[in-house]
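Course assignment 3, question 2. Fill in each field.
Student: A.L.
Task: Predict the tertiary structure for the chain below.
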Amino acid sequence: MDTEEYSLPDIEGSIFGLEIIISSLSRFDLRRGYYLTLLVKWRLRHYNLSGSKEQLDKSILHAVEAQLLLLASPMAVAPIRFFPRLVKVLFNRLVEFKQPDDVESCVKYLRYLRNQRCQLEVGLGISHEDVTSDLVEALAIRVELNTGDINSDIREMTILCRELLNSDISGSLLHGHLLSLFQVFFKTPDILPVEEVLDPLIECFQEANVRLPYSYDLSLALALFLAHRFCFIENHSIIDSEEAIIILKKILTFPSDLPQDLRSQFQDTALMEIAEISYRRFYFFNNPEYLEEATFHIRVYLRSASRDHPLRPDLSQRLAELTEQRAIEFGVDEGRYRDPDVYKLPCLSSLAASITDPNSSISDEQWGQHLRALNSMEYTDDIAEIEEGIKYCRLVLASIHCVPSLEHRKHVNLYIALRSLLLQAFHRTGKLEYIDESIAVLHDGLKTYDTPNDRFVLSFRAVLPLAARIWRCQQKEDVDELIQIFASLTNDDTRLGPSYRFQFSYGWAIFAHCFGHPSVTDAYENVFKHMQDSLSYAPTLESQHYRLVSMRLGFHDLPLGYASYQIDKGQPIKAIETLERGRALLWSEMRDFRTSTDQLRAADPTLAAEFEAINRDLEQVTMSMAPCGNMEAESIKVEDSWITNPFSHQVAKQRQFLNDRNKLISRIRALPKFRNFLEPPSFDILRSAALHGPVIFINHCHWRSDLLVLFRDSLSLIPTTDDFYRRAIELGNRLVDARKHHRLESKKYERALRSVLQSLYELVGKPVIEELRKMKIPEQSRVWWCPTSVFCYLPLHAMGPIPSDDGVTRYFSDIYIPSYTPTLSALIASRKPQAEGKTFQKPSILLVAQPESLKHAIPEIWTIQRLTTTVTSLISKNATPSSVVEGLKHHQFSHFVCHGNLEDGKPFNASFKLSGGKQLTLLEIVRSQLPTAEFAFLSACHTAELTEESISDEALHLTAAMQYCGFRSVVGTMWAMADQDGQYLAEDFYKSILLSDEPGVPYYERSARALRDAVKNLRSKKVPLERWVNYVHYGA
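Answer field:
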């Protein structure tokens, strides 16, 4: 009989009549149970019409009493017949009013009924699936009310849903239960993201997507579960993130027959999650490929999100961080993101008012507002605003004790926010109490939260305040704690990429060295371990150079500091090895790409071929021009892949090639006799660089500076004065200032240069000459300079004048024949034997000249063309970049007569100016492989000059580029040259080199003596000092 057939008065009348009958029966009368069951039905009818909770509550009381009476009935089946009705009534009240008492009873009763399957289905016709469905919903409510073990309830719901997946339950009901499971998981803050919960959940929703393939919200749910497991389970499975992104990208292409508002909602969530996963991937792994991916996807999402979207401030801030990171890592300034809304300071007083009530609950959205407000404070310099932010943060942090259900990740974020504000206040005021409190706050966080990820995050943030207090107070406990943190972070390759690991290992080395910590050697070795990985983080030579410059202190000071420490400990041989592996990093990287595989080919031809191929691929990417890194929102489309951006594509390719190459190197090192393949060369190998004459190192370092002279069979250490470091910097500054502020032909500049050469002799030349004489190195012998730091800019070859008994003015090059080399490996490579016939026969010469822009070029051109050897001329319009590169491949000698260009901060844009304004750049030269090249004379400006923004020890100039791509010896210029000197210098130089009688000495090895003699003749013409000091020799 349907409820609709009765009016409310009729129902109330029936209830009244039944109550009179029941009241007339004794409590133990079995008929009472029958009438109570009737009363339950009529009260439920009343509830269905009126919605009166009183009627529902009374119906449940009557049902309980009836059930108790039926239990005493001699009819065994009576209790089980009525019990499901009682449970159903109780379940209805639970769904409607969500009372904690009801949920406990309901869960217990439904579990009982599930164990009575046969009696329910056979005796009463009640479906087991219906009972299971109700239990799923009851558990969902219990999770929502937080009255049981949440993780246990989620696991039970998952088991029940998987059971329903294998039943005949309708798709719509199954869909509803699965959504309930999904919703309670993501709406409940206290669920721990543990494998025991997430793994079965993900398996369940994977099965659901097979059974219900067109339930798009279930697809989204699966993607979100995968993303959650990726983000919050310690191993951060890349496979989970990839699978989640694949599903989310499918959601972006949902069919248009979906309602527009639902389709938009799905796509908005999908875009947001893709952006979040991409950001987390970069955060966890610090991979440059993920940096590009995250930047792209967050830009896409912000492009589609409305200005008032609640998550827009968070993602805007993340995008600002990412674009700043791209600028730091790659030198990509295009597309830096700044959202003005992110930098607006909030009204802290109104936000503070929302947390003054200790009994008020705090929603996720409110906590998001608090954290965004705190994060925005980092953009203010006003100490009053910072102080207000500190008070506000303390208030927020204190309030977390009143919110026990708050996720602990939010607690950790509050500790970090307060630390940042206190650090800001310290930097503005210099007051130590701010630093003390910031460290105390982090220590409190570390005591409270001890998971590996929390310890990592809080330790990471402790570095700066600890370092600040150490420099101020120099307390041993702080030093020990900081070094322990550095050591931990340096070895954390799961959360930090090579860039951060390099920075932290460098910090470890600096503090250990400065405070005499016993871990100094371990610290420096760690830095070297991460140095090349950090450099190759960037995909191209240009972006790698940018990294070198942006981390100048680390890359520049590292080898010098470690070498000085080793010398101090009586280990000069190790110091030589250290200086070798820590300098000219870009050239070393490029040289490794062209490593000879002759021995490997003999051992394993297939592996050798694979290694050559991957080297070619990697060299091509590394030496390519960095494309525009612009990812402005207007330039991208939602349906684009991040990798369609040219720079991002370059990053992805280089990363894949590097991974493949590292795997090949591991395979090669597993072969017999190849264990040390591509390892840094040992001293026994390096000492061969001194076979033809001593190599002089100048280690210019603030810890201690030293002169080391490597001989064929020994190594000398020359002590320096305590003021050596300072005096060298003053010399460099004096020379640079003179060149900036005086005309180069002026007497003021001449006096300044003469003073520098004289002081340079006193500082370096005098002790070196004394040591060479002591070691019985004959005058007129070859010597090589391998300078560091400021000495890379100073003309060591021209030091003097040197006092003499006969009154003749002599400079260093008058006593010894000087050359330069950026590293010992470069010098060794320049002497590798060629085919004997080509080495000792008269060389052919390629002449490249642009006489139109050089007033005195024609006489120099005629001088070269009249030489008694084969000369090929590329002059004026015949000298194009391609024709010059092609000509270089077929000639042993090359002579350039043209303008050389230098661009500050961009050494790979250094170039020779050719016909029609075209440029032959350093990068184009480096790409060339010149198997027959022996010697190059660069009669052009700036060919061995370093720009002010370059790293001096990297030797990034045209002369070094020529040496790298195959030339064994190169003559270059330190500055701009006077073109009128070219004719005389070339005539004397080639006369000396081609007509000298030096049997068994290759022509290119005669170039250093020939240059010295030609410059000496130029000096005899009384030219200004600048003009003859300018010329330098590199190589063999």
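Instructor remarks: The chain is about 60% helix and 5% strand. The CA atoms of residues 899 and 919 lie 10 Å apart.
Grade: pending
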